[in-house]
Automatic annotation (TrEMBL):
Belongs to the bacterial solute-binding protein 5 family. It comes from the Bacteria. CDD domains: PBP2_OppA. Its main location: other. Gene3D superfamilies: Dipeptide-binding Protein, Domain 1 (3.90.76.10), Dipeptide-binding Protein, Domain 3 (3.10.105.10), Periplasmic binding protein-like II (3.40.190.10). Pfam families: SBP_bac_5. Residues 1-20 form the signal peptide. InterPro entries: Peptide/Ni-bd, SBP_5, SBP_5_dom. This is Peptide ABC transporter substrate-binding protein. Residues 74-490 form the Solute-binding protein family domain. Keywords: Signal, Transport. It is found in: Cell envelope.
Length: 609
C-alpha cells in the first residue's frame, strides 16, 4: 500500500513536471518582434492624422472594410463581400457579424456594426476635427459640401447603414477605384458612443482608444516604449502570427540600430550606406543584410512658393527668385540625382531614379504604363540632370532677375536629423549644385530639422526653400499623385507661383487636374492626368527624384509574407508575418523577389478574370 502511494505521488510529480514543461514550451513559442525608433507619434487618432508613423500603429489596431494579400490582391477585411452598381457610384458592403470592439484590457465593448463606418466618416468630414485626410473622403456624395459647411445635415452625405451589418456609399461621380480608397484611414470605423464620450481625449492614450484589429496597445510610454500584443478576440486571429511587437525609443535609433541588431537586442535595422561596405566584407554580417523592396512612395525636391522661414535666410529674396522659371529650371537641371542616390544605394543608384512623380508600374491603360503616355513619355525616358542646360538657364535667370533679386540666392534646405542618409545626401546635393552653378549664384544652406514632428514643424509651415519630400499613393488612380500639388494639397503651394492664373481664377495646373477628374473614360482620364503632371514637371515646380524602398536592412521578417499594396496602410500591417529564426541574406532575397514577382503577376491576372 505504501509503495502504491509513493507510486501515485511519483506519477503526480511527473504530470506536474510535464505540465510545467508544456507551459514553458508554449511560452517559448510566443513570438516577439523588436525594433527601435526615434520619431515619436503624437496621436493615436487615426481619423485625424496623415503621418505614416502614426497611422502605421493604428493600422495594426483597427481594421477597415478591405485588406490585401501578399500579392496585392484585394481581400475581405471587416467586409465579407461587396458589390457596386454599373457606373461605380454606389457601393454596398456586407460586414462580418463576429467582429468586436475591445478596450485596452481586451474586454469586449461592442460589436462592430455598419453605423461605425458612418460615425467614422462623420468625424472625418466635420471640419472642426481638422482631419488631415478629409480631402480623400470628399469622394463621397456631398462630402465636400458638408465639410465646407454648405450643408449641416450629415444624413445628406452619401453613406448609410442599411442595417446592422450593411453599409452603403454613394459617390459624387463614377469611381471604379473606390475599393482601393478604403485601404486608407479616413474610411476606417469608430464606435460613435466611445468617441463621443472621449471627445478631444480620443486617441491620446491607449485607454482612450478602442480596438477591433489584430493588436492591442499594451504599453504606450512616449519617448520610452510602446508594445502591441495580439488581440485574442480578433475575428481573424489565426492569421496573426507575431504575439508581441515591441518598439523601444532611442533618439539615435538610426545610428545604433545596426549594432543592436548584431547583439540580438532587436529584430530589424536599416543599414546606412556609410557602413554597408563593412557589412558586405564581413562574412557573418553579409549573411544578415539584404536589399529593401522598392515601394510606390515617390521622392522629389519641392520648391516652396510660400516661404515662411526666418529672415536671416532671406525669404523675400527667395520668393522673387523662385517665381522666375529660368531660375527654377537651373536648379531642376543642376541636380545630379545619381550622385545624391549614392548615399542610399551605392551599387545600382540609377535603378531607383524616377523622372516622374507617379512611379512606373502604378497604373496602366490597356497594357501601356501611365508614365509612357504623352506628354509624360519624353520626361519619363530622359535624365533631368543636364549640366549645359543648367548653366544656360542660370545665365537667363541672372539676366531676368538683375536688379530684382540679390545673388547668391540663399536656398534653405532642411533635413530630418533622425535620418543619417538624408543628412549625408543633403551635404552631397549642396556641394554638387554649388560647384556646378557657382556660389556666386546660389548659397544652399543645409540645416538639421527635428527628428520628431518634422512634417508639422518644417514642411507644412513652409520653413524651407528647397526640400526633399515624398508622397505615397492613397488609391489606384493618378489623381493620388497630382492632388498634393493642387490648391487643397499639402505641398509647396505651386498655385501661388506668379503668372499662372487663368480666366476662371484658377491656375493652369488646377484646371488641368480638374479637367482630368471630370473625365469618366479611363484612357482619356489618364491622358489628361499625364498632361497635368507633365506641366508640373516642365515648369519645374518640383524635381522628381526617386522611388522609395531603396537601401539595405537586416531583418527577421520575410517581406514577401507581408500584405502588399502601393497605397493605403496595408504595408504597415504585421498580420500574416512571422519572425524568422535568422535574417534573410541578399542572395535569398533576390531569389525570393524573382519568385514573388512571377507569382504576383499570375495572381493579378487571375484576379482580373
Amino acid at each position: 500500500m505504501l509503495v502504491r502511494k509513493y507510486w501515485l505521488l511519483f506519477v503526480c510529480l511527473v504530470v506536474l513536471f510535464c505540465v510545467a514543461c508544456n507551459d514553458k514550451s508554449a511560452s517559448e513559442k510566443a513570438s516577439e518582434y523588436r525594433v527601435v525608433y526615434s520619431g515619436e507619434i503624437k496621436t493615436l487618432n487615426y481619423l485625424k492624422t496623415s503621418e505614416t508613423n502614426e497611422f502605421a500603429v493604428a493600422a495594426n489596431m483597427v481594421d477597415g472594410l478591405i485588406e490585401y494579400d501578399n500579392y496585392g490582391v484585394v481581400q475581405p477585411g471587416l467586409a465579407k463581400e461587396w458589390s457596386a452598381n454599373e457606373d461605380a457610384t454606389v457601393w454596398t458592403f456586407k460586414l462580418h457579424d463576429d467582429a468586436k470592439w475591445v478596450t485596452h484590457e481586451g474586454k469586449e465593448y461592442a460589436d462592430v456594426v455598419a453605423q461605425d463606418f458612418v460615425d467614422g466618416l462623420h468625424y472625418v468630414l466635420d471640419a472642426k476635427n481638422e482631419s488631415s485626410t478629409a480631402w480623400i473622403a470628399t469622394v463621397v456624395k456631398n462630402g465636400e459640401a458638408f465639410y465646407n459647411g454648405e450643408m449641416n445635415d450629415f444624413k445628406e452625405v452619401g453613406i448609410k447603414a442599411l442595417d446592422e451589418h450593411t453599409v452603403e456609399y454613394t459617390l459624387e461621380a463614377p469611381t471604379p477605384y473606390f475599393l482601393s480608397m478604403l485601404n486608407y484611414v479616413c474610411f476606417f470605423p469608430v464606435n460613435g458612443k466611445f468617441i463621443a464620450e472621449k471627445g478631444e481625449d480620443f486617441g491620446t492614450t491607449r485607454e482612450n482608444f478602442l480596438y477591433n484589429g489584430a493588436y492591442i496597445l499594451d504599453k504606450f510610454e512616449p519617448q520610452n516604449e510602446r508594445v502591441l500584443v495580439k488581440n485574442e478576440t480578433y475575428w481573424d486571429k489565426d492569421k496573426v502570427l507575431i504575439d508581441r511587437i515591441r518598439y523601444k525609443y532611442n533618439k539615435e535609433a538610426a545610428t545604433v540600430a545596426p549594432e543592436l541588431f548584431l547583439r540580438g537586442e532587436i529584430d530589424s535595422a536599416s543599414i546606412p550606406t556609410s557602413i554597408i561596405d563593412e557589412w558586405f566584407k564581413d562574412e557573418k554580417k553579409k549573411s544578415q543584410v539584404r536589399q529593401t523592396q522598392n515601394n510606390f512612395y515617390t521622392y522629389f525636391y519641392a520648391l516652396n512658393f510660400n516661404p515662411q522661414f526666418d529672415a536671416q535666410y532671406e525669404p523675400d529674396n527667395w520668393k522673387i527668385a523662385v517665381n522666375n522659371k529660368d531660375f527654377r529650371k537651373s536648379l531642376f537641371h543642376a541636380l545630379d540625382r545619381v550622385s545624391a542616390m549614392l548615399t542610399v544605394e551605392p551599387y545600382n543608384p540609377a535603378d531607383l531614379l524616377s523622372n516622374t512623380i507617379t512611379p512606373k508600374n502604378f497604373v496602366d491603360v490597356e497594357g501601356v504604363d501611365y508614365t509612357q503616355l504623352a506628354p509624360l513619355t519624353s520626361i519619363s525616358n530622359e535624365d533631368s540632370f543636364n549640366k549645359e542646360l543648367a548653366l544656360e538657364y542660370k545665365e537667363k535667370a541672372k539676366t531676368a532677375l538683375a536688379g530684382k533679386a540679390t545673388f547668391p540666392v540663399k536656398v534653405l534646405m532642411p533635413y530630418n536629423a533622425g535620418m543619417p542618409d538624408w543628412a549625408n545626401r543633403s551635404q552631397v546635393v549642396e556641394q554638387q549644385m554649388e560647384k556646378l552653378l557657382g556660389t556666386d549664384y546660389v548659397d544652399i544652406i543645409v540645416e538639421a530639422g527635428p527628428s520628431t514632428g518634422f512634417l508639422s514643424e518644417v514642411r507644412r509651415p513652409g520653413k524651407f526653400a528647397l526640400l526633399e519630400a515624398n508622397w505615397g499613393p492613397d488609391f489606384a488612380d493618378p489623381s493620388t499623385y497630382t492632388d498634393p500639388f493642387t490648391v487643397d494639397g499639402t505641398y509647396n503651394k505651386p498655385e501661388l507661383a506668379e503668372g499662372y492664373k487663368e480666366a476662371n481664377g484658377k491656375t493652369t495646373y488646377q484646371n488641368l487636374v480638374d479637367q482630368a477628374k471630370e473625365t469618366i473614360d479611363t484612357a482619356k482620364r489618364y491622358e489628361l492626368f499625364a498632361k497635368a503632371e507633365a506641366f508640373l514637371i516642365e515648369e519645374a515646380f518640383v524635381i522628381p527624384y526617386s522611388v522609395g524602398g531603396s537601401g539595405y536592412m537586416a531583418s527577421k521578417l520575410n517581406p514577401f509574407e507581408a500584405q502588399y499594396s502601393p497605397f493605403g496602410v496595408t504595408a504597415e500591417k504585421f498580420k500574416g508575418q512571422q519572425v524568422l529564426e535568422k535574417p534573410m541574406s541578399n542572395e535569398e532575397f533576390k531569389k525570393a523577389l524573382s519568385e514573388w514577382e512571377q507569382e504576383r503577376a499570375e495572381a493579378l491576372a487571375n484576379a482580373e478574370k
